[in-house]
Amino acid sequence: MSGFKLVGIAGSFNRPSKTLALVRHVAERASIRYGFSSKTYDLHDVGPSLGGALWRKDLDEQARRVVDEIVRADVLIIGSPTYKGSYPGLFKHLIDLIDPQELRAKPIIITATGGGDRHALMVEHQLRPLFGFFMAHTLPTAVYASDRDFADYAVSSDALSNRIGEVVGELSAFFPEARPAVAAAE
Predict the structure, then answer these.
(1) What are the CA-CA distances from residue 35 to residues 8, 56, 70, 74, 181 (Å)?
(2) Keyword Aminoacyl-tRNA synthetase, does the record have it (predicted)?
(3) Fewer Cβ atoms within 10 A, N terminus or C terminus of the chain?
(4) In whole angstroms, how large is the CA radius of gyration of the chain?
């Protein structure tokens, strides 16, 4: 193990969820390649206190634990379902509870899911600027997946798998020493 921690957060409440499946898939590939320890969460894991919290201190213990994991991670995978061209409001509210300095210079893989190609630019027009405000390092390759890229809530598209391989490879700019001696299957 490299000692580095990866945290994935899917901005979805639904279970099963294609967004959570995508975040888990990317996290697994990155963890295998670099030896990261990893955890993935969705808004269901954050719990009900999120909606009523005006400040981070208003979150219950479960939600505070997830936020603490996010800010202490060495690398993040952010995934959002696309609703009406953007991310869900509660997902944005979760991010709003994080101080911008806590994500400064953190490498972030941005991903999103949607019903079709019409929402593909959500990663560039919504997620990248959001994390740019935090002065985080969103990796150059963003990953968008539509319904046709999944079979039974699992990544099934070769094109999507190749794109995930590209962005996972981009992490080597931040973690070159974390690469295990044996290259993982990509």
Answers:
(1) 15, 31, 18, 12, 10
(2) no
(3) N
(4) 15
